[in-house]
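Example record used in the benchmark description.
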Amino acid sequence: MLSWKEFDSHADAVAATLLNSGMGRHAKLAVYMQNRPEFLVSYFAAFKAGFVPFNVNYRYTANELRYLIGNADAEAVVFDREFLDRVEEVRAGFPDVKLWIVVGCAEEQCPHWASRWEDAIADHRRAHPFLAPWGRNDDDLMMIYTGGTTGMPKGVMWRLQDLIARGNFGANPVAGLPPMQSPDEAGPRALAAPSRPRSLIAPPLMHATGLISAFGALTSGGAVVLLRPGKFDPELLLDAVVEQEVTRMTVVGEPFTRPILAALDAQPERWDVTGVLAIGSSGAMWTRETKLGLLRHMPNASLVDSYSSSEAMGMGSSTTTASGVSETARFELSPSCAVFTEDHRRVIPGSGEPGLLAVGGPNPVGYFKDEAKTAKTFPVIEGQRWCMPGDWAIVNADGSLEILGRGSQCINTGGEKVFPEEVEEALRRHEAVRDVAVTGIPDPRFGERIVAVVELEDLKLEPSREALAQWVGDQLADYKVPRAFVFVDSVGRAPNGKLDYKAVREIALESQKSNA
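Model output (structure tokens):
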């Protein structure tokens, strides 16, 4: 556990260590860790010294790690002891990396080429590193590497000033406080606040949902509660909620909340979670039924479902409370957002015409080293620069959104477009289905046919494929009904709740080969 004073002094010391290595303004710092306090300390050390921190997916293989460090032009890497062998495997290819800092490594185990975290923070009395010769300004950056659904990971470049504004840091609608316009506002606001959040961040900090939520808590002067690394355990999470008096939680939709609800329903007297005032989610679908179930246990909570991505934060949101229920996959369009057709016409609400979501206002600078992708994702429409990451939606007559999904995963079957998320949501409502992933595979007649890869609640109670097809057909048009179902032990979600659609498609293809 770190106090605020320790957090600040550790960040000062690490920043000074990085400066002493010879790094210059806007040099890149790779942060390669699972959830632990040093992750956030490293980011704030970079901010203090005018460096650019970026996230490294700890599930990457050596080849993926090699690509990322090289693509980002990293000059320093902070990493967990558990990844020492993988770093050793790739480091020889990066002679320009000035400093490798290993966290959690005993002195006798630390290799000669690495510095220990404990040594980096040993002297807390170093001069404040933000007195670097280049100073700090609104052009300082942070990069979020996003894997997306196709191609290699890309670094989304956010100016810190824009990130603060887009992330609604410091906003409090109840108290009438708008988002901060400058980091200088954080201290006075936190001091004046009658209470400060105690935020449990369940997903990995290496992904935007967890990281931005942690920033929001810290800029409010609050506390960040992290779970020990390992497989997600809803009982351990609920233990932490009670022990740490958590008031806010960040999760990733159904993959996190459904197991939490199951644990609460199984042992309703074990955890008192009535002190939870808010749960925020982004990155995966969150059903109406699960939200209602959670509110039985935490009636004071606001359940905020955000539709966002690393590039486009705040495209839409949906809030559910004990007095107001929202529909699954239906969001209120943010005031700074719009929906355009592919030829950049505004979609008319109520027309039923699908379009691409676009976010105006503070947006990323673009993708690092990818001008073509930047130009495509950040077009100028109606004289304004927008972020259009590829998410399709329908605008209802009342202005609300029905999210269809990411266009790169769209299935074209017989000339009809089918978004996997829509079919997945229909299947997930079935009581026998724990999780599901939908993909398209080649079909000689229709171009593609829909296959559902299904994880069941109980393999002994396997429903018939005909029953599942009928279930979807009762909710969606016939052409959206899967033509095949594959039952698996796990659909293989990543720790951030996202699906690897490439792997899902391979499962579907292999299953169809064996049934041929």
